[in-house]
Amino acid sequence: MNKNRVVKKSLHMIEQIGLLIILIATIIAVGQEIIMVLHKGEVALKDLLLLFIYLEVIAMIQIYYQEHRLPIRYPLYIAIVALARYIILDAKSFEQWQLLEVGFTIVLLTIAILVVRYGHVTYPYEECRDNEESKESKKTV
To answer: What is the pTM assigned to this prediction?
Structure first.
């Protein structure tokens, strides 16, 4: 067996184990959050945003398993939701300039998502273009 092939298989296995660990840890965190909400007897916006972050992590893992690549947009979405949650939790203790900084950061992340999405649509990767062409040829058949 080729040394490169062994290294590639080993790295792929490590990657899969790492993704599985992240998935299990995320599912445990979701369970813990649900138990805490049930214990409190009420659902707050901060709880919903945290659950949304967990769902985005699970969606990232699913996309990674399906497409074998990670779209950069998903971590950006998670960052935006995390910043929104941060504002909700700590807004009372913020100075005005701190609130503006976090808000500006959210705007920058949103612009980054738009730029990345525009670049992906306008200048797709070769394999993406090939996949789209094969889908189009199947539709016309």
So the answer is: 0.70
